[in-house]
Write a structure and sequence with these properties.
heterodimer, A: 648 residues, alpha+beta, six-stranded antiparallel sheet, four-stranded antiparallel sheet, 63% helix, globular, B: 145 residues, 29% helix, elongated
Chain lengths: 648, 145
Amino acid sequence: VTPELGEGILIVALALALYGSVAAGTGARTGRSTLIESAQHAAVGVFVLMTAAIVLLAYAFLTFDFSVRYVASNTTLATPFWYRITAVWGALEGSIILWAWMLSLYTLLVILRHRENARDLYPWAMSAMLGVIAFFALVMTVSAPPFQRLSPVPLDGRGLNPLLQDTGMITHPIALYLGFTGFTVPFAFAMGALATGRVGDAWITTTRRWTIVAWYFLSLGLLIGGWWSYHVLGWGGYWAWDPVENAAFMPWLTGTALLHSVMIQERRRMLKLWNLTLVILTFLLTLFGTFLTRSGVIASVHAFTQGTIGAFFLGFLSLVALTALTLLAVRWDVLRSEGTLDSVISRESVFLLNNVMLVAAAFTVFFGTVFPLLSEAVRGVKVSVGAPFFNQVNIPLFLSLIFLMGVGPLIAWRRASVDNLRRNFLWPVTLGVVMALVCFVLGVRSSFAVLSLALTLFVASTVALDFFRATRARLRMGETLFPAMGGLLLRHNRRYGGFLVHLGILVITVGVMGSHAWSVQTETTLKRGESAHLGGYQFRFDGLSGRQEANFFRVSGTFTVSNGKPNLLVMTPAKKFYPQDQAPIAYVDYRLGLKEDLYMVLGDFARDGSQATIKVQVNRLVSWIWIGGLVVTLGTVLAVLPDRKAPR
Amino acid sequence: MNRKPKLMIGGGVIAAALAYMIYAGVTQSVVYFITPSELQAAPVTGKAYRLGGMVVKGSLQWQPRTLDLAFALSDGKASIPVRHHGTPPDLFGEERGAVVEGMWTSDGYFKATQILAKHSEEYKAPHDGDVSKKDLMKTLKGGGQ
């Protein structure tokens, strides 16, 4: 009965979400609080139903209920426990259900947190969020039903894609979707602001933490995705400008722009229209990302017509865009800025430039991603736009953004005086220039490497200088060192949280630069006892062995690695043979290090074990990317801590 | 207030620079997807293409010691000899679809710099071990993405 029960739950959830959305909207317009309360109950009901639906699907996976088509397609009797859990969101239908569940969770949290403190905006926000949930429930009942019955019931399922059987795939979709769905909250409040005409600061201050949280989870999702790509796919990279990656990167870029531009509105009453546009754009891009990855258009424009899901998403995208544009048009006269830009050399203008660059990067990624689709649809010519395009256009943009990252937080509002500039930037600029010279003298000739290192040091020293001065001021007030620093971080948690996130981004930049500029690799075939040499290491092939594992057969090569000292370590890259799959899957062996990673992939081998073809990489500084992710996490936590303003 | 025009000019300069960067980037790095019969009809040397087809049965030659890989890609009408230096990827094999990126050389073969075997989230394992030819051609038309 699982299929029928599941479908029933989803239909009721759809009806309830629709009712709640209409009731909240009507209640907000007419001011009838009973309707708003009723909508709240509906939202709680939707959350309970969505939870029931996702638990039911998980139950079907755990009990191998192959009468559910989705379960049969994404698991086998041999799939280990954890991967049966992750299989719940391993493919299209399940990812939609996960999305809808998270959205219902966010809605519940918004109600709990804001029904008292944002009385005007929150009924509208609730209406918008329930509306979005209703759309996803509609997709699940019509276009991508997770509980579709399969008959006759097969004896065994077809199995989860072996590449997805990795711990990264447990967390990556969750983080990514928490990010995607999280941007619905600021979007919903922005809609509320437009509906009520209260387009001032209220929606921004209400959603500040929500935006940071969504941004953080999206960043985390991107990083975990990179980590998965790095240690599973075996090509030695973490980012390929693949359309699936780009789909998640575009809202990240506009979301980052939003985090910065709202500060100008809070401080200077400018950019009201721009902020609303950015939040709408970011939300649209999360939907567009799902459309891109789930409708099959990436493979071919013609795949679009194979399912209805593409049409659903495109229709909803247009509906949201039209509604938002109409609301913007209606409120046009209250969206004018109250403040003006006084000088080009000011914090406002640096933030503005930061926004232009981020949106430009988003546009570049968008263009490169959809150009092949457009070309195929319009001219009937299939083309591909590869990594060189994205790198060529984005690297200058990102380097400029890093420069602005150093300038923005310290330059004065309104109009920066020469004194302000000298005080804040003389030493950092000097250090950056010295860094560039040192790099050059040491023989670094990659302009990308020189520039990134110089800019990184420049930005890091602006942060250090600021923190040093603030601490010194507190010490002069008679505080001791650690309480002074701690107090500073907690009192100005938003500022220093932001700085910490910036430092994390710098650490990631160093990692990206190092792996880009200094990684080396080789590919070779070794007979037993022969060695490959790379980056000062020696990799000796000692033999092959085979072993039956839970749901696959593993053939691993044994390689003794040394660097001067003999027998430093043994690495065992392997190939995994899944019975339901024709081709084996490479199992990468790697050793992470702060300076460099050793990375081995077994390519091909002689069946008698006498010979193996391997790819060996020494990847430089890649670990800095993951460490940077940790720093970003710390910074985010600091930034969302409750405000501790001094009592006045 | 003559700041507005200044800002407009600044914005215009940035927009123009960006437009140029995107235009130059796309025209330099766009790679056309062609089929073996299209390449045979108009063999242009020295221009990067993505060539998609099925690896012809019996054409695959792999020399592990030298890492030389040779095979023929066919779309049913024409067959193009391809050479590559490097290990064949996991999903690569005879009578399977493959997309290679590279150039046609004047020596009469397609020199591949890259064999694309992308991961797909939507995993479709064959039911009983064999993929039909029709399915394969469908994947090929997808351009290997």
